[in-house]
Every structure is written in structure tokens, then in C-alpha cells.
Amino acid sequence: MQIRKAISSDLPAIIKLLRTSLGESMIPKSEELWHWKHVANPFGTSPILLAEDNGMICGVRVFLRWEFLQGEEIIKACRAVDTAIHPDYQGKGIFKNLTLSLIEELKSEGVDLIYNTPNTQSMPGYLKMGWEKWGKLPLKIHFNLSVGKSKNQSQTSDWSSISDLIKKIEHTSFSTNLIRTNLVTGYIHWRYITCPLFPYDFISDSESYLLIYRIKEGKIGRELRIVDFFQLSDFGENEKKQLNTRLKTIEKNEKVRFTSYSGLQFGKELPIEMGLMPVMSIGPEVTLRKVGLSEDLLQRPWGWSLGDLEVF
Q: Which CATH number does the domain housing residue 96 bear?
């Protein structure tokens, strides 16, 4: 058994292994998605380790590069994402070996931490390898009790119409002590506009705010899921009223049963009218793993949005 770094010519075999091990499920296993996720990422190409036995790739472990920002401090991070072990090789410790080997490589690169949102099946394994539970992301829900019968349908968002605002957002220094995703040039375009998994739409005045959402079909009806919200210094009461009016119009046109927002900023810091239901800690469960940092990660002032943590 050999553990080695992946090279570009390994991609067809990696995709085949992902399909064999995981199936297609809701996330397609394709070279298009792989390239968007692991090559086009503005934070850098993903580090990938493979397990190979007699020329056959039997295991893959991938971390997605990410950056957070707190004030002027850049925190180098990775998100533990794609992993697959061939069915004939499962139960032999390959997943643990690949994961810990990849962490050792990241130490020499100056990576500070790894984060992810594991499911209940994989959680115990991560905890044994040094991950810690931060907790579940708060979730705010507003039910629309009378779903509109409007025959209108909201038009697909024209992202090119707010290209100047996106540039402005990505070059703004937000005055907050919270740790948030580092909005490097091209991040919003990569994360939301070219994402091959979901179509994202937005509400904006093209000048002072940008709310990003997607419509999700569910068992209890259509959901308008707010994934990110950015506001600039000239966002005021008039802009707040405009935002909420436009949001209600979209809810009606799209026949949305409920609207959700999962993140660490509520109340006055989130000028979106979300009703009287209390905030619930039922969002994605976040785990953290130290790599280069020595301080307690759990106690740091995280400011995640759902866009940072959505499964993709």
C-alpha cells in the first residue's frame, strides 16, 4: 500500500472511486464539479492524498482550502470534504491514515485549522482524530402561513448587474471582531455565480447591500434559504425597508412556505424581518481541528454564515 499525492492524470480514477464508494446521491461525482471545487477555488488548489495498491487507487482524501479573517489577521484553513475508500478496502484504517497524513503535510504549509460539518456516522471517527465539537449553527425560521397564489415568478438573477457592488464588497474592510470568510477577489463569483450544484439568486440595491439565497424544495414545501448577507456603511433604514419589501415579493412569487437563515448574526445586526419565532440551535454541527494554532478554537468569536458551511 502506497500513500502519495494526487496528480492531474489521476482524476478519472478518482471520480470512478467516488462513484463506486459513494454513488451519485444529491451531489454528482463529475470532473466539472471537481474542477470548480478543487482547482478554480480562489483560496488555492486542494491538497489531495491517495492510497494506491498494485496500481489501483483504493482511497482518496481531500481538504478544501479556505481563509478566514479577523481584523487584519488571516487564518489559513481547510475544510475536510471529499473522501472515499473502495468497498474492498474499507475497515483497514485507510481513511484515518490518509487524513492524519494530510494534516501533517498541512502543518508545514502554515495551515492553522481544519473545519467541517460531519454527519452522525462520521462524527465519532473525526473526534478520535482530534476534532472538537463547536456546536450547531443557530437557525432562524419564518413561516409564511398564507402562501401566495401569484402567477408571477421571480426572474433569474442577473449577477452581471451587480459586478461593481461585488468588487466593492470584496475590497471593503468590515469593522468587526468576528472571524469571517476572507472575501478575496473572485470569492463571490466562484462561490455563488459559477457553483454547479445549486442556482443562487440575490436581492440588492446594487449599492449598499447584497442578500444571497437559494430556493430549496422540501417535504413541507418550498424554502427560501438565506445563505449570505453583506451590508456596506451606507445601508440605512430606507435600504432596510426596500430589502424586506423585495424579500416578501419573492416569497409570494415563488410560493415559499418558509424562509430560513442560519448564521451567527441575528437581531439588529441582521436587518431582515424573520418573525417572532426564537432562534434554534438546529443548524449544521461544526467541528474544528487545530493544525498550527495553539489557542482554544472553540472560544474564538466565529461569525460563520451558512454559505461557509453548506455541504458541497
A: 3.40.630.30
